[in-house]
């Protein structure tokens, strides 16, 4: 019963650019980017029990570093990409160490604060970031010489990267380490008593989450070919967090669904409805009332209740 | 010399304003362990309601009272109908409070439009106070006064009344308080309404300084969060002290270190949390 | 909750009829509606200006019965919420889904920069409202035409007025810490100091600072005036606090083109009287077109049109003039673009033409806030005609210098 569904989805994804039309293909690419971003955040929020409002830091850092290396040093993408990922991951190591002094709301606030520090730096340090004008004139990489400028080409690139990212994240979660992580989320004291270094487990997760956030950041800057400080804003982090929770934190499909909801409402529905912000809020409230664990767990429950009749 | 005096007065009045903003949030978070992220939008809603009230009855007090009651009523409905189902579901609380804040913010944009609406201070306080050649807005000192009175009032409520005793019991040990027969759910509703009322009334009192404009909610919410985290969860004294620390650091920091203007609000909090995760006066970990 | 009227004007069924009669393709194209996109901001802090942009343009089209140069117009409005990434997405929607042929907007500089490469790629004629300087200077987009101004275009004229007519010698500037604010203050500083004045203090509070108290306390009081480069409602908020600190009357206040816009003026009282600002528009501009426009706008929306409403109204007039000169054949993009840039026409702001980079050359009005018929207006006290983005400087020399920014031209007269 499952594999026909999977096959159908695979065919749909693979064939979409053939009938989708440029606008919808681009929209799909944006959903992929948001999905990777949300999935990386979900590692912390859903599996680690550590809600973060600073995830925009990773998109912003990776994007700016890649852009700066390309523009100022003229390095090719096959050099800027790993460098950007490495640098962002190192910053994640630092931020994780600082933030994990706290948990719960304190952790949330520190991650927010750290992202805001980066945001402010992006505005102020115009010598490097060009401040409010942003960095312009960026290009998309051309893996194996194939240009990604056409919507369909970028779509496939983003799709492949997203599949890889989600697969590796899923592997992480289902590994023994992932089990330990969930243990620290549910029963931190017991885990400590069992000899686990709870802080280390969380820190590793934080860094891994930052790495994939950076990957999303590279996809983001390649797609837009422009980076501006607003990408580092609280709104970016908040939308990602809301998407993860709405979709279902602690599930693999949840962040994908949640990210899709946010992107579709923001970029698509806003074309038809002036009050799309209100609708977004309403959707969140309704999800919480009817599916308090998120859309994916909620739908699963309804599905099994329907099947059980 | 003038610079130091005026900036000190600025810090004090900003601290008062921040306390009026953060007190409600601190109360709700301290007792109910709910981070009420609608707080910024309730503050903004109060300011808008106050602005409209002032067109009908030019008294800031009445406007603050009406706005406070209206926002309290809305808050109470929200708590009873929605938040109540989410006890223990911290992520769900984040989602629903932010969702409601989007709704409130967009409704404010529809009802009151995109332009900033000024609120007039009471006529008696409109002129600057001039002492020794230094002029300072009288209204800002008034706000400081209101903040101090509110702080004392809340302190007396919590420390000296039976209701306060019940609140303290709930904060310290909820299961035990329940076991002893304290009506926790009624208490929760009361505290949430009180927190919302403080937000709404606070918006009106701060109105003559801030004005009511779209975006007031997202400007104010992080400030409330910073104050409460810095000061320590569950502690009114923490919220009070935290407000003034943030105000001083921000006011002098922006003037003396303009390059750090964007981060100056967050640095004290990061520093305190890194070394003392409870915050300055917090009793439990956040 | 109402649905946006995304398509304001529907085409008459004429396209279908013409093709059935077998008319040649060119004529068929002529009777199809022109698809115009408006990229603006309808939610978030910039919403007030963005909504005015829509109102101005809708009024322009409605006055003409949605027909320009003999062709029907279909208008598509998109909301970018002021976020550059969102602006780019919305623009893609307008181009790929709604198939617009010409774009009016966007509002903010960051949005225009985010859309820059896409506009080039799509070869989309764009009538921009955003003020970022380099879009028509060092990084000119061949598909751009800007009927409003660069950030500093009006500020440079104002600096001249302050130095030569108001005889100010020492001034301070304060503006939002964004490119728009930096560029405006830089232009003001350059012209003011070239005329013999000194800028002794420059402040750039962050765009979303909650309170200006700390900046007011730092303000030097031994100056003649302060120049405000704020946008949106910040000028209004700052000025309110300025008065509360008893500084009114001690320091003169002059403002840039968005500091005391008509939209903000309506919420102010007598404390605003006497403020001098410079802008390429005022609701009081005395020509036939504007008299009609301002009166119609006021009777429909109950307030005077300001910067943003006039911006799209003027862009509409430029669009119309260009279309008329190509007989409505917008499909020939290159010819249309040439026509756009060659446009010389009368608009609500007065006569406009464009320089070789696509930026407007037109009047800059020095305005003073006065009370007229019971409401506050920006009365015109002086006109600088034919102001270009380069002021009186030589174009080549201007472009050799770096773009106006927080640090250029270097402020040599700052005092501590």
Task: Please sum up the structure shown.
The complex is a heterotrimer of chains A (309), B (286) and C (416). Chain B has eleven helices and two strands; from the N terminus they run ααααββααααααα.
Can you describe what's shown?
The complex is a heterotrimer of chains A (309), B (286) and C (416). Chain A has 309 residues and is mainly α. Chain A has a single domain (28-308), classed as Orthogonal Bundle (ABC transporter involved in vitamin B12 uptake, BtuC). Chain A contains 14 helices and no strands. Chain A has helices at residues 2-20, 22-47, 56-73, 77-99, 104-124, 126-129, 151-174, 176-186, 188-193, 198-224, 234-247, 254-268, 276-290, 295-308. In chain A, helix 2 (22-47) packs across helix 12 (254-268) and helix 7 runs antiparallel to helix 10 (198-224). In chain B, helix 2 (39-56) packs antiparallel against helix 3 (60-81). Chain B has eleven helices and two strands; from the N terminus they run H-H-H-H-E-E-H-H-H-H-H-H-H. Chain B has a single domain, classed as ABC transporter involved in vitamin B12 uptake, BtuC, CATH 1.10.3470. The radius of gyration of chain B is 19 Å and the shape is globular. Chain C is of the alpha/beta class and 416 residues long. Chain C folds into two domains: 14-150 and 286-362, Rossmann fold; 153-284 and 363-400, Rossmann fold (3-Layer(aba) Sandwich), CATH 3.40.50.2300. Helices cover 38% and strands 20% of the residues of chain C. Chain C has helices at 14-20, 25-31, 47-63, 84-97, 109-122, 153-164, 179-194, 213-218, 234-244, 262-265, 288-301, 307-325, 333-342, 395-400, and strands at residues 34-40, 67-68, 71-79, 102-104, 126-128, 144-146, 170-174, 198-203, 225-228, 252-255, 276-279, 345-347, 350-354, 360-372, 375-387. In chain C, the strands form two sheets. In chain C, strands 7, 8, 9, 10, 11, 12, 13, 14 and 15 form a nine-stranded mixed beta sheet that branches. Chain C has a six-stranded mixed beta sheet with strand order 2-3-1-4-5-6. The model of chain C is unreliable at 1-28 (pLDDT under 50). Chains in contact: A-B, A-C, B-C. Chains A and B meet through helix 5, helix 11 and helix 13 of A and helix 4, helix 9 and helix 11 of B.
